[in-house]
From TrEMBL:
Keywords: Cell membrane, G-protein coupled receptor, Membrane, Olfaction, Receptor, Sensory transduction, Transducer, Transmembrane, Transmembrane helix. The keyword Cell inner membrane does not apply. GO terms for cellular component: plasma membrane. The chain crosses the membrane at residues 26-50, 57-76, 96-118, 191-223, 235-257, 269-287. InterPro entries: GPCR_Rhodpsn, GPCR_Rhodpsn_7TM, Olfact_rcpt, Olfactory_Receptors. This is Olfactory receptor. It is a multi-pass membrane protein. Belongs to the G-protein coupled receptor 1 family. Residues 39-285 form the G-protein coupled receptors family 1 profile domain.
Amino acid sequence: MKNISNVTEFILLGLTHNEEMQKICFVLFLIFYLIIVLGNLLIVVTIIFSSRLNSPMYFFLSYLSFIDICYSSVTAPKMIADFLVEKKTISFIGCIAQLFGVHFFGCTEIFILTVMAYDRYIAICKPLHYTTIMTKRICGQMVAASWVGGFMHSMVQTLVTTQLPFCGPNEIDHYFCDVHPLLQLACTDTYVVGIIVVANSGMIALSCFLILVVSYIVILVSLKSHSSEGRRKALSTCASHVTVVILFFGPCTFTYIRPSSNFSEDKTVAIFYTVITPMLNPLIYTLRNEEVKNAMRKLWDRKLISSGKTRM
């Protein structure tokens, strides 16, 4: 399809047109974004500098937290800045870059969450083989495959979108550039492209979600043979992961499993997987995990001791 676009920029309509609400949203989402960056950065630093958090579970968790920072940074800073301006514009190149970033980090996070479920399955259902299966090399390969998978998915979404002609209008009823709002602005029939988008995005989200559901059903069944203490610890760890999966996969599946539409609820739903879930992840994984909390306390005590020696 020959690209005959004459649109050089898009106008983002944002979350609300009410000026008072925009001021409130600016403060609220700025706080949310700071929590996302600081909370997830704290988890990454804690896992890197703690000798006790060296299991594959925390290796994957550190990458999940890093991806959450990157994922939110693609959309949140632009959204926050737009609350202070009347005309919310983004260049064509900037829009495509944002589209690529959202799908790259979002899809990578989906694969990392799936890998984390596999890790828990091996740890609980095959504990005697855990160390031989989940080696550092295998874990590294899984993370690398997640990044490659996210990149390939994002490239498909970006390429099919950039091949579309955009002749105007150029108003996007969203707070960031996503594939569905852009399909609605294309001045050509986007039925085939829409099918590709649903097959690419929706099926990845749905298939990974089904894999996660099956893996946790198997885990729950296998827990019957565990001791009460082992069962409690396993359920605590799995509950955190299941909570994150529901918060992230639910809105994602709702958005991408269906064809392009002009649902105004889409941008409200998108808040959950671009802002709310990355913000809650550090709280979910730390409040229910004594090992992470203890590691954070030790790092804090070590910092206080080192700062006290420096002053002396």
